[in-house]
Structures are given as structure tokens and as C-alpha cells.
Amino acid sequence: MNFGIPLNRTSAVYHQQKKTMKLFLENTIRLSQWLSADVKAPFPELYLAGGAVRDLMLGKAPKDVDVVCKNARTFARRLTRGKDMALVPMEKKPDVPTFRIVDRNAPDRVLDITEMRGETIQDDLYRRDFTINAIAVRIGNNGHPDDVIDPTGGQADIAAKIIRNVDGSAFESDPLRILRAFRFAAQLEFAIEPATEKNMQASIMLLTRISVERIVSELLLILERPVASETIRRMDATGVLDVIFPEILPMKGCPQNDYHHKDVWGHSLLVLENSENILNHLEMFFGDRSPLIAANLGECHRAPLLKLAALLHDVGKPSTRGLNLETGRITFYGHDETGSAMMSVITERLKLPVRDREFLSLLLSEHLHVLDMSAPNVTWRTLMRWFRRLGENVVPVIVLGMADVQGARGPASRPEAIAAYSDWSRRMIVQYDDAARRQLAQRNLISGHDLMKLGVSPVPRMGDILKHVRDAQDVGDVIDKEGALSLALRMLRDISA
Fold first, then answer.
1. What is the pLDDT confidence band of residue 473, given thresholds at 50, 70 and 90?
2. Domain 163-244, what architecture?
3. Which residue from 41, 144, 257, 345 puts its CA 20 to 30 A from 305's CA?
């Protein structure tokens, strides 16, 4: 079997297709083994379909092997009967029953059995979202691949790198397909066909019918891409972002002071691009500390969430916009805290986990404070307090601050100041990694119990005293328990005096 394209055996395409066939066979051998072990009754018509076929045609190993047939539940149960396998109902697609088979002895061996939509495989394929996902391969006896079924021209669109809807009602059937189109375009580096984009734009308000969980899942997949900003700009041009984040509408056309060359929204898009540029070139910006930053942002969607924070970091500006009558300069006093509160509302609406809500709100509340911390008169004691309060979150805060400063290119902005801030950001990461983390990890030299053992009665300000002692410990003013107790007792005497 080939994939319907005449090939020159000396061409690179031919060798790519040989690789594709090898991948196909490797990913269907589990089905071959299971079918061979069960010959008591005829099998239903089986087809490999959707993303697995698309990925194979692109020479990529499929994430999932998705087999389509009628009576999927019955067939899945039959495959697992008498074997050490788990059968798990899935919700991969709305209203399409899917059953995942997992080999308990080899958990990485996973097979999805999906119910065929319609009477024939052609009916099923015509109900899919995009032509590149509407291709099937018939699975013959013992799991061997057979004919390719491609009624919508998906192979040609894969070759042309085009995202095309199967029909004009695709987005009415499932509006989430609007975001999936952008996600596939970003992941595969394909272009969305103009008529499809028009259909998407005409259907964007239908996104309000979709659960926010499904929307967030697609959005995070888009933001995970190295150059998600290009896709975000295309989403903005079609109006999709206005539906997901109505808070951005006042940002558009909102003018800023002469430190900026763009309005609030234009600046925000630029900060998103800057954050991606930093993340994609960590070694250039942070040298040998780039692994620290990569590890910090590589957990729990922190990198895509940082990009979301970059996009919305100034969401509080329109409602705080004012004018200094003496200087004539536009002001946005308190927009960081206002934006943080707005982000809390946004993330609650999107039903993000509490951990992610707190992370995003922190980034917005700190995105101005980090600039204050770069002032030349800031002491090491103040920096240590900041490091202690933020902990590991100081890393994304510094990255966001760097991206924000790089996006301020108005007539009052000076290139040397931007470069100096980048240098400060690198130094802070080094100081945090080399000195602060180790110091902050040390246990407190004293506690309230230590003071009470000396006969000191609890006083209302004891917590403040212990905090002051800890500050002294962090900067090396006290280095042992004796010195810490002495400092605490002096402070207690001052309070009592």
C-alpha cells in the first residue's frame, strides 16, 4: 500500500514515505497481535482514521492510534476479554463514543476504538472537521494496512500545507473547530484556506456555547508553540480573542505616554512576541543560567501561562488611565493591581486551577514592581525580601519584566536603558541562583519558642521581630542562634522602653 501518490524511488519524498510506512506498521502491530489472537468471529470493518493518518503522511509518529468501526464498545470489549488489559471510556470528541484499550503490562501500548459516524467510512469522514483529518486507511486481515480512503482531498491539502474545512457547516457542528484550525496551523505550520477562515469568522460567536475547559485546552496548546504570537495575531484579526477575552476590547486604541510607540493592545502583542523571543533564545539572554529558567518554566504549563500573562499584563490600563495636568503625560496609576484583580476574574471564568490563577495574578501584580527593583538604590536586604516573597516565581517575573521593557520603544525610551535593564535581569537570575536560593533554603535561626524559653512573654509584634531577624539572617548580619537571639532581645527591649 502507498498513500495514493506516484513516487520516484530516488526522491526524498519516496524515502519519507518508506519511513511513514514503517511508522504505520510499528503502530498497528499491537492491533495485529490482538486480532490474531481472536479468530472466533469475523471482525467488523476497521479503519485507521483522523490525526494518526495525517501524522503518518507527514512522517511523524502518531500520538494515538485511533481505529474506527461500528459497534465500537462491543469490539473493544471483545479485544480485551480474557486479557490483562483495561478498557476506559473516553471523551475525545463530543457525541462520539471512544474506548481506550491499555495493556496493563505495557501502559505505553494504547489503542483507541471509536464509533463510526454514519453508515459508511465515507459518511464518517465527511462529518470531520478538516480535510487533512478526513483520511482513513482500511485495516485488512490481521491488522495489515490496505486501501486509502480520501473523499475530501486531504492528501492534496497535506501536500499543499493547507487547513480546509470539510464543509461550510463544520464550525456550526462544533465551534471549537475554530480554535482547532488555529492550533493545527500553528503545530503543522500550515496556512488556513481563505474560504475556511471566512467561515470561521462568521461563526466566532458560537464559541460562547463551548465549555471553557475545551477552549482553555486549545488555547494552551497554541501558546505552547515556540512562535504562538503569529497565531495569536491571526486569531485577533478574526475576532476570536475578543470573544474569549472581552477585556481586551478597551485596550485597543487606548493611547499611552511617550515611552510607548503603540497603544496598549499593540504593546501587549509586542510583549508576547518579546517573551517568546526570550524563551526561544534563553542562552543568548541568560547564558549558563538558561537551564534554570527552562526547568522553572517547563513545569505545569508555566511557559504558556507566562505568554498569556504577557498578552494581558496591561489589561488594567484602560480603567486606570488618567492625565497629569502638570506634565500633560498620560498615567496609569495602580494598573498593576487593577490588572491582577481583573486577571483573577478572567481565570475564574476560564475555570483554571487555583495554582494557575494565583500564578497569573502574581505575574500581573509584580510586572511593575520588578522594574522598581532594578533601581540603583535598591539594597540587597530589599532584594532578599523580594526573593523570599516570590520564591521560584521570581524567574518568570524577571522574564516578563524584560519582555515588557523591550516593548517600550517610544520617543522617551532610551536604547541604553533597555540594554541596562536586560543586564540587570541577567544579574538578578545569577544572584538568585548563586546566593539567594541557598540562603533562603536555610532554616530560621530562632523561633518564638526560643524566645519564650528565655522568659519572654508573647507580644503583639513578636511576628514582626522574628521577620526582622530572618531578614538579618538572609543578608548575613546574624550567622548563628546566639546572634539572632541577641538581636531579638534588643528589639524587645526597644519596644518595652
1. confident
2. Orthogonal Bundle (1.10)
3. 257
